[in-house]
Design goal:
single chain; mainly alpha; 2 helices; about 55% helix
Length: about 80
């Protein structure tokens, strides 16, 4: 099993990339809201749960999916 598919940017699938971007952007928004607005929307922390869940599911797909699966190019 190739665990580099969990952390190496070139080995991540698109869903993992989206999840990591979402986590980083949510954390950035969290800091801005905390330091400049001094409040946070109700339920904001659920974003972290959702992004983490997406990353876990995407990682399982990347680790256990068949190579080439999902690439349906029609000519």
């Amino acid at each position: 099993m190739d665990f580099s598919k969990l952390y190496k940017p070139s080995a991540l699938n698109s869903y993992q990339s989206i999840a990591l971007t979402g986590l980083l952007m949510s954390a950035g928004a969290h800091l801005i809201l905390h330091f400049f607005v001094h409040r946070q929307p109700e339920g904001f922390n659920w974003l972290y749960v959702c992004w983490t869940a997406l990353y876990v599911v995407a990682s399982l797909m990347n680790l256990f999916g068949k190579p080439g699966e999902g690439h349906h190019h029609h000519h």
